[in-house]
Design brief:
Layout: H1 2-13, H2 23-29, H3 64-69, H4 82-90, H5 99-105, H6 120-141, H7 147-158, H8 160-169, H9 217-223, H10 240-244, H11 255-274, H12 276-288, H13 303-314, E1 320-327, E2 335-342, E3 345-352, H14 355-371
Antiparallel strand pairs: 1-2, 2-3
Helix pairs in contact: 1-11, 6-7, 6-11, 6-12, 7-8, 8-11, 11-12, 13-14
Length: about 400
């Protein structure tokens, strides 16, 4: 039954719709072309009696005057776009994902305010999918990471700058100006005017915001976005002005924001048309396959104090720094090797130009060794979904939390 619901949602994305600007032209052709809805339907038209003259295979060409009045290309134009077909093949998208839906992912809400033709709803779903798959992969693989590092890793995998870079790697070009005559294979958006600022949120959503209280780490999890930042890129529910404002009054968008919405929309399109296994495989191929150095995301202010608090919290002996070796003490470039020990166990080791530098680096190495712990057999909660779900599921490790100094 779950598969049937996915099919029904995918058909809704390609339901027959018409734009008001060329309804009059369709009425003029209704006498000669009775089955005109077939060019926008997702399923093949029912064959009629062979004695009647059929125009199902004839494509209705919209006059150029009507195309220029459209805010975005009509869905029928996606079948003739070489750029769109090349993008579909280049990304190895599932065959069940039609070109009409892929063309819709390239239409930013700033270019077309109609919710039936832009990618706002798809981008909202894709943002949740990317956040879900990225967070479970990071937390299950590194269960001891501090929240600040988790937010930084989420931004590195699915942040706006990363998604904009992915758009360029996919070979997607940006149209100079949106319109019905533009190739559907181009990313369409209404660019910001000189001096215009992008649309931002009206607040953080915190009930105590008017009192000026500080943003704690716990509130960042509840009220902020996937990256721990105040929500500034609003979804379709928080942008009612896009659906009601005329085309000239629709606020513009940056190229980075349009690229972010496009990648999120593609993720949602794969999920709706091909299901959860295909969406997860798409995420692993295009996002999780990127190499990220987690150790470079740490920024300790006082590592020796943090290490002492960590040992006290876990019941270890107090850390002690010991000099292991040295060379060139009286030269211009001495090197000292210092190790940090807790009893007889060595927690970390590092080299530096002075004893204090080597001790600090050794404390940092000990902290990274603790926080970057990773289990051998990592399984995420999404592995239990779908027909290929794992049978021997084991709960992942849950750490007691980071050290609060």
């Amino acid at each position: 039954m779950k598969g049937l619901r996915i099919l029904r949602r995918s058909v809704q994305l390609l339901s027959a719709r018409r734009r008001p600007c060329y309804l009059q032209y369709q009425r003029a052709l209704s006498i000669r072309l009775r089955p005109i809805d077939a060019r926008l339907a997702s399923s093949p038209a029912i064959q009629e009696d062979s004695t009647e003259t059929s125009f199902h295979d004839e494509e209705v060409a919209v006059p150029p005057a009507d195309l220029t009045s459209l805010p975005s290309p009509p869905p029928a134009a996606a079948l003739k776009s070489a750029k769109l077909s090349a993008l579909h093949a280049r990304l190895a998208l599932p065959p069940r994902l039609p070109l009409q839906t892929l063309a819709r992912t390239l239409v930013d809400p700033s270019a077309d305010p109609s919710d039936d033709f832009n990618n706002a709803s798809l981008a909202s779903l894709g943002n949740d999918l990317l956040g879900y798959y990225a967070s479970e992969a990071i937390i299950c693989r590194y269960p001891r990471l501090p929240l600040t590092v988790i937010f930084a890793a989420m931004f590195a995998y699915t942040g706006p700058k990363t998604l904009a870079s992915i758009t360029r790697e996919w070979g997607v070009e940006v149209a100079a100006e949106p319109g019905g005559e533009v190739d559907p294979g181009l990313l369409q958006l209404k660019r910001l005017k000189p001096g215009e600022q992008p649309v931002k949120g009206g607040g953080s959503g915190r009930p105590n915001e008017k009192y000026g209280w500080r943003r704690g780490m716990s509130s960042r999890i509840v009220y902020d976005d996937h990256f721990g930042d105040v929500k500034t890129s609003l979804d379709i529910q928080e942008r009612p002005e896009l659906g009601a404002a005329p085309k000239e009054e629709v606020p513009g968008a940056t190229v980075e924001a349009a690229c972010t919405g496009f990648v999120r929309s593609v993720m949602a399109a794969v999920y709706l048309h091909a299901g959860r296994p295909a969406a997860k495989a798409f995420f692993q191929q295009h996002f999780l396959s990127r190499q990220l150095d987690m150790s470079a995301l740490f920024d300790f202010k006082e590592p020796t104090r943090d290490l002492s608090r960590l040992c006290a919290k876990e019941g270890f002996e107090s850390p002690i720094a010991r000099r292991l070796s040295e060379t060139g003490r009286n030269s211009r470039h001495p090197v000292f090797v210092v190790g940090v020990f807790s009893g007889v166990d060595k927690l970390g080791e590092a080299a530096g130009g002075s004893l204090d530098e080597a001790r600090t680096r050794a404390a940092v190495a000990a902290l990274k060794g603790w926080y970057l712990y990773s289990p051998l057999d990592v399984k995420v909660p999404s592995d239990t979904e779908g027909p290929d779900a794992v049978k021997d599921w084991k709960p992942v490790m849950i750490d007691g939390g980071e050290v609060v100094v």
